[in-house]
């Protein structure tokens, strides 16, 4: 299978937090593609951490299992990848209501930051896949993935950055700009954007959305690079 985010390789050091404009936009696929780009450019110890995995029972396959499968299909040796979850909740909902249904406390942001720092001690690259979009509450104390990214940045002496994954379809420009605005307002270092589920036959709408997203600039004038598009079907047996 191809390597859709190979151009992002130089950014892939330390901690890369993968968030999205919404749920189901392709964060897990993007996480796998980022790990593959890291592997292809020489990283040999890569970890994927999912702070809160909702919508799964204990024996089910979660997002980190999907990343492991995609990397295995791409030919990455199993020993390169470490997968870890903070906690699992059964309901397919945001963490606070899902934890209430399972009657368990949510891990704190400090808990997640400690686990990520521990992974960073023996990995070159730690990818962290958030739940849902940027402002989804992770911990029952009104903290979100941007807060977690900032906390990790204060705790570790390594690069920490965020990748925003969005859809290529109608409505994505508003969602992408809103999400970037929320990230920048919180002082997060944004590495760039990714478009998931890129169609094999893109329409003018998809192409104009991609071109617009490729030209987004932060308030200080710096470019917010589009790191790549992930073809719909990437990673499936029949796909590229
Ligand atoms: N590049 C892709 N190729 C194939 N299917 C995709 C792709 N990106 C997303 N999908 C589809 O969208 C669903 C959600 O993608 P996923 O990466 O799990 O999103 P998220 O992690 O943001 O919830 C997948 O189960 C799959 O059906
Ligand atoms: Mg996911």
What does this protein look like?
- The protein has about 240 residues and is of the alpha/beta class.
- It has helices at about 25-40, 65-75, 95-100, 110-120, 145-155, 170-185, 205-215, and strands at about 15-20, 45-55, 80-90, 125-135, 160-165, 190-200, 225-230.
- Strands 3-2-4-1-5-6-7 form a seven-stranded parallel sheet, with helices on both faces.
- Helix 1 (about 25-40) packs across helix 2 (about 65-75) and helix 4 crosses helix 5 (about 145-155).
- Strand 5 (about 160-165), helix 6 and strand 6 form a beta-alpha-beta unit.
- It has a single domain, classed as 3-Layer(aba) Sandwich (Rossmann fold).
- The model has no long low-confidence stretch (mean pLDDT about 95).
- Bound molecules: adenosine-5'-diphosphate (ADP) and magnesium ion (MG).
- Adenosine-5'-diphosphate binds near residues 27, 28, 197 and 233.
Taking Cα atoms only, what radius of gyration do you get, to the nearest Å? 17 Å
CATH topology label = Rossmann fold
Quaternary structure of the protein? single chain
Bound small molecules, deduplicated: adenosine-5'-diphosphate, magnesium ion
* Range of strand content: 15-25%
Mean pLDDT across residues: 96
**What is the CATH architecture assignment?**
3-Layer(aba) Sandwich
**Helical content (DSSP H or I, runs of 4+):** 25-40%
What is the β-strand count? 7
């Amino acid at each position: 299978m191809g390597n859709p985010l190979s151009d992002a390789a130089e950014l892939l050091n330390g901690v890369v937090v993968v968030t999205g404009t919404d749920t189901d936009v392709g964060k897990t696929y993007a996480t796998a593609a980022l790990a593959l780009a890291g592997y292809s450019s020489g990283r040999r110890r890569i970890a994927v951490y999912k702070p809160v995995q909702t919508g799964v029972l204990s024996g089910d396959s979660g997002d980190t299992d999907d990343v492991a499968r995609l990397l295995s299909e791409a030919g990455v040796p199993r020993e390169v990848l470490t997968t870890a979850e903070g906690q699992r909740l059964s309901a397919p909902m945001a963490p606070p209501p899902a934890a209430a249904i399972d009657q368990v406390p949510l891990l704190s942001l400090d808990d997640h930051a400690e686990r990520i720092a521990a992974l960073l001690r023996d990995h070159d690259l730690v990818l962290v896949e958030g739940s849902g979009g940027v402002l989804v509450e992770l911990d029952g104390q009104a903290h979100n993935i941007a807060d977690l990214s900032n906390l990790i940045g204060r705790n570790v002496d390594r690069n920490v950055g965020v990748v925003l994954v969005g859809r290529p379809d109608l409505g994505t420009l508003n969602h992408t700009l809103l999400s970037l605005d929320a990230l920048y307002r919180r002082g997060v270092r944004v590495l760039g954007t990714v478009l998931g589920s890129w169609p094999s036959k893109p329409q003018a709408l998809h192409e104009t959305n991609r071109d617009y997203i490729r030209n987004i600039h932060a308030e200080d004038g710096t470019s917010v690079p589009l790191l790549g598009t992930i073809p719909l079907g990437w990673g499936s047996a029949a796909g590229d």
